[in-house]
Specification:
The chain is an all-alpha fold and 355 residues long. The chain is built from five helices and no strands.
């Protein structure tokens, strides 16, 4: 409960009646509560009105020594109160100067902290900008790798289409080879059949000639000219048969040459097919390498993004910590300002001199 001016005046009157000089500490002990600043102000008003109270209460029957003692007590009390007020003002002025110095040091520290915080924020901003640039570069690398992969996939698709076309051509060539082989086999079989028929005809003719020779042996002399003519005819027939045989041989050789050419074409097509298969293998290897490079680029991008996110989280935590420190400093400064406000008010009350 706060004390009032009447409480202080009543306590000072009681001390005066008890023969004690009213002081700040005695009044505070008498009341059992109250701050020295409040008691000082109210005690000054008590001393200010004490002269008028004594003058109004003066009686002619009061002995002169008592009146002089009261006046001496009054002057001594005023002097003591003035000294205590001056001492209290000097003490409060020293405390206020110390508080001002401490407040100036705190303000300077706060300003330095704000400068450091601004520099730290600038560094953080530069770091974030660098991380963003790294992230953009990593994304560009990933996009380039994806574009290269798409181009390689398109090349692979084209190669696959070319391989499919080559396989179709090879199948067509195989069909042509099979057809040529069948035709060659048919032609060879036909030639062999014709040759066999010709040989049978030659054998039959030879048998007939032997039989005719046997029949004409007895008539050699009579039929020599006819036999000679028959012999010549037979010779001509043999020559014709020989020519047919040679023609059949030439046909066989031509068929063999055609078969060799066909086999050569088949070997060339098989070589082209093997080259196409090797090209497909190379393209698959290149595709695997491109996929590996893309996966490595994606892994690097993910790692960069994770590092950037971690760095950004660390920077944000540091910024939150600095903001919390700044808030704590602001609260501490506000607390000091509030604690100084009552002292400034008390100092304003102490400036009023006693009457």
């Amino acid at each position: 409960m706060a004390i009032t001016e009447q409480d202080v005046h009543t306590a000072a009157d009681a001390l005066l009646r008890e023969g004690e000089r009213p002081t700040i500490e005695r009044v505070r002990l008498k009341l059992g509560r109250g701050s020295p600043n409040t008691i000082t102000g109210f005690l000054n008003t008590w001393f200010a009105g004490l002269g008028e109270r004594l003058a109004g209460a003066r009686d002619d029957t009061l002995p002169q020594p008592v009146a002089r003692a009261a006046q001496e007590l009054w002057r001594a009390a005023l002097e003591h109160a003035r000294q205590q007020a001056q001492a209290s003002q000097a003490e409060q002025a020293g405390q206020l100067a110390a508080e001002r110095e401490r407040l100036a040091a705190i303000e300077e520290e706060l300003a330095s902290g704000q400068v450091r915080l601004q520099a730290r924020e600038a560094d953080l901003e530069l770091g974030l900008q660098a991380l963003r640039e790294q992230l953009v570069a990593a994304q560009d690398t990933a996009y380039s790798a994806a574009a290269r992969l798409q181009a390689e996939q398109q090349q692979l698709a084209s190669a696959r289409e070319a391989l499919t076309q080559a396989r179709g051509d090879a199948e067509a060539l195989r069909a042509q080879v099979v057809d040529l082989q069948a035709r060659h086999a048919d032609a060879l079989a036909e030639t062999q059949a014709r040759h066999a028929a010709q040989e049978r005809r030659w054998l039959n003719e030879l048998d007939a000639e032997r039989q005719a020779t046997k029949r004409l042996t007895a008539e050699v002399d009579r039929a020599r000219q006819g036999a000679e003519r028959d012999r010549q005819a037979a010779e001509r027939e043999r020559e014709g048969a020989e020519r047919e045989r040679q023609a059949a041989e030439r046909e066989r050789q031509s068929a063999e040459q055609e078969r060799g050419e066909t086999q050569t074409r088949i070997a060339g097509l098989q070589n082209e097919l093997r080259q196409a298969l090797r090209g497909e293998t190379v393209l698959r290897a290149e595709l695997s390498a491109a996929m590996a490079r893309l996966e490595a680029g994606q892994a690097a991008v993910h790692a960069s993004e994770a590092a950037a996110a971690k760095r950004e989280a660390d920077l944000l935590r540091q910024l939150d910590a600095l903001s919390a420190q700044l808030t704590a400093k602001d609260k501490q400064l506000d607390s000091w300002a509030r604690s100084l406000a009552p002292r400034r008010g008390a100092r304003g009350n102490d400036k009023a001199p006693p009457a």
